[in-house]
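hey so u asked for the seq, here:
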Amino acid sequence: MPKSQFQQHFAAMELSIQECVYAHCAWVFVGHFLNRLGSEYTSLSSILSPENTTHQEILSKLKKRLRDETYTRQLIFEVMSTYPALLKLCYLNFAYTHYIPNSSYTSSQDMGPTLSYQRLQTETKVGEPEIMAEIQRHAHTHDHAMVMSSMLIFNRAVLKTNFYQPTKVAVSFRMDPSFLSKYEYPMGLYGMFLVIGSEFRGFHLRFRDVARGGIRIVKSRSKEAYSLNASKIPHFLFLNVVLTGRNVV
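ran it, structure tokens below
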């Protein structure tokens, strides 16, 4: 990712390259899946009648406003950029789980351990409770704490990744779909993949082990259209899958 949202932090020597890429990927995840509706919306929807078209129209408009206006992608980026020290802690939590040192690097006399492995040996392993305590201590507002704590949901949801592979054209994550809100995504998933490149992002959704599928590409005519389309990718794909019954990339 030659152009990461967080490259300014690398230039300022606040974050390493890997920390910047991780922060960018977490920013994409949080931008899509931060719970914007909240428990209040769920309580309201349970009170209103599903048979009343006026009630459902009000809920639909409220849902759209909460999703589009409460936490914009720019706001999430600004919040995350405010706390580079917390970004480093969240990255360490991710790295200790998903970085697997190459045995040939650690045992060979010709090649020493990778730089990633060496850096991890100098850091103290930090668990989620400690990171949450740091977030609560340093976050300026409740909204900031919600955004930063969502990065831990990302860490927890990643089952497998090529993040530490030396050669790749994009970063890919296999996700545990159990983190998805049952209210926003009522149909359970069999598998979920998030792929992030320098100029694209995409999801691969599977409702069964083997099923037909295809590629859906959403092209945008302007930056404004791109921002709108990017924010709606997961919801668009879920609707598409529900209608066609197929896997979708």
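The radius of gyration is 20 Å. The beta strands are 158-161, 171-175, 191-196, 201-206, 213-214, 247-248.
lmk if thats what u needed
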